Amino acid sequence: MVRTAVAFCPGHISGYFKKVAGETPETTGSLGAGIVVDEGVRVTASAADRPCVVIRQVDGRGRTLSESTGAPPVEYLMTELGVAARVETTCHLPIGSGFGLSAAALLASATALDALFDLGLGREGVAALAHRAEVVHNTGLGDVAACQGGGVVCREGPGTAGARITRVMTDETVHALSFGPLPTPEVIGSPEQLARVAAAFPPECPRDFAEFFSFSRAFAEKSGLVRPEVRAALDACDEAGVPASMTMLGLGVFAAGEGAGEVLAGFGDVYPLSVAEEGFRLVEVRES
Ligand SMILES: Nc1ncnc2c1ncn2[C@@H]1O[C@H](COP(=O)(O)OP(=O)(O)O)[C@@H](O)[C@H]1O
Ligand SMILES: CC(C)(COP(=O)(O)O)[C@@H](O)C(=O)O
């Protein structure tokens, strides 16, 4: 009999953020706001002789587009837990493009490993471990905290333990577009970039969806991260009166409201996304 654990975690589009450098990974993270989206990473895990991670990118119909092996942050989870498994991650959204997929892969993997090996970590233990892996590898700061639940989320403290996190639910559709990756470690590992980002940070939580967009856009403009292709798409949204900003940290744009999908379609493949109602979760444990 082979035991397989399946878990899912939604992605997170960060609209704005500010790094908080604590003494430990637990107290390190970011403040900021973003949208937890219904697409993310699905993980299947089964015991193996040695740790192995397979990353699969699929199209809208679930057909495999590419497959690669090895993901240091996910392997770190297994080292820390002292377990060995074959972990397969599947996602449709592009990796490295500001959709928080490293955090989603970590939360879904830790959830699946917890169930597979009966480790008793629970939601808080899973989130704490995933956050540590993310911070240690510089692949993100606030996405794990955000993906503990759904909604338009504002984080007023770093990390997953005790930070004030508020969520606003909405049935709006968000349209997102990616021109390619913007490697997270390059930005959050650079003191100059972080200083600009910190100076651009709006210190309040947005009251509603519209304010989330205006705060995000003001941040994007001041952050110095907008590149020409992103600028062209933002300009087109402005002309059409569509609220839009840049996916942090990726070379992409997200927009909402009437006409958002049509305007972005002029620039590439658009992902229509719903705001997620809940965060990471175990899907099933099956024996076959
Ligand atoms: N779907 C995934 N499955 C496994 N590992 C992933 C996945 N997405 C990201 N990662 C890990 O995170 C690293 C990229 O992190 P990052 O640039 O922060 O991506 P993102 O912006 O999508 O969160 C990858 O090199 C890989 O190690
Ligand atoms: C913006 C970012 C630092 C990285 O996000 P991503 O590239 O999606 O991993 C995020 O973790 C945050 O703190 O808001």
Summarize the structure in words.
The protein is 32% helix and 33% strand. It has 288 residues and is α+β, with helices and mostly antiparallel strands. It has a single domain, classed as Ribosomal Protein S5, domain 2, CATH 3.30.230.120. Helix 2 packs across helix 3 (122-136) and helix 6 packs across helix 7. The longest helix has 16 residues, at 101-116. The relative contact order is 0.21.
Shape field? globular
Indicate the mean pLDDT. 97
Stretches with pLDDT under 50, minimum 5 residues: none
**Percent of residues in β-strands:** 25-35%
SS summary, helix count? 9
The helix-and-strand class reads alpha+beta
**What is the CATH first-level class name?**
Alpha Beta
Give the end-to-end Cα distance, rounded to a whole number of Å.
5 Å
Largest sheet: 8 strands, mixed
Features:
288 residues, alpha+beta, Ribosomal Protein S5, domain 2, eight-stranded mixed β-sheet, binds adenosine-5'-diphosphate, binds the ligand CC(C)(COP(=O)(O)O)[C@@H](O)C(=O)O
Brief sketch in words of this structure:
The chain has 9 helices and 12 strands. With 288 residues, it is α+β, with helices and mostly antiparallel strands. The mean pLDDT is 97.
How are the SSEs placed, and which strands pair?
Elements (H helix, E strand, L loop, with lengths): L2 E18 L8 E19 L4 E7 L5 E6 L2 H10 L3 E7 L9 H16 L5 H15 L6 H4 L5 E4 L9 E4 L4 E9 L2 H5 L2 H10 L8 H15 L4 H12 L4 E3 L3 E7 L3 H6 L4 E5 L6 E7 L1
Parallel strand pairs: 3-5
Antiparallel strand pairs: 1-2, 1-12, 2-5, 2-6, 3-4, 6-7, 8-10, 8-11, 9-10
The protein binds adenosine-5'-diphosphate and the ligand CC(C)(COP(=O)(O)O)[C@@H](O)C(=O)O.
The site of adenosine-5'-diphosphate has 22 residues, from helix 1, strand 5 and helix 2.
